[in-house]
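To: structure desk
From: M.T.
Subject: fold request, one chain
Message: Could you run this one when you get a chance? Sequence is below, nothing fancy, just the single chain.
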Amino acid sequence: MFASQSALAVRYAESLAKEATVRGLIGPREVPRLWERHLLNCVYPVERVPLNARVADVGSGAGLPGLVWAIARPDLHVTLIEPLRRRTVYLEKVVSELGLKVEVIRSRAEEVDRTFDFVTARAVAPLEKLARWCLPLVTTGGSLLALKGSSVADEVAAATDSLRRMGAVDISVDKYGPVDGGTTVVEVVLE
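Reply: Done. Structure tokens follow.
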């Protein structure tokens, strides 16, 4: 998954287990399952993203999935969008320590005046609300890749009409990674 970047992934995991936990960005109960529940869960969908794509991670928090994608795929142009100062301070520190070429923007998604090929988010908001924040950041022909949990079918059903009004031409649910424990992603493609 992380190929030649595995040492960076280990360093990031160590930072999540220690510093991110102390800062309240990761719960202490999450530490034993950082790899399975967070790092691997985030890395699986990056296979969907083509080479050299411009990617924004909205509500990045501790860097999930944005930093994971930047580590696994150094070809990507990753921007982390996070409104809370304590989180952006952590993100900037990790980016610097790991030597990643990642931009960190302290802002709400609605205030960012740029577009990206792909916008992603994990555990931020229900799909309809998330789309209102993220789709304005998606370039024409680009996609929102929302990492979702078990209620994905209900969220998609509830949001489909709104997503179409917002310009979605295709809405799909795909699973990435192992069949018994992969990551569910809702992809919303803009016209």
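Reply (cont.): Residues 3-190 form a domain with the Rossmann fold fold (CATH 3.40.50.150). Let me know if you need anything else for the meeting.
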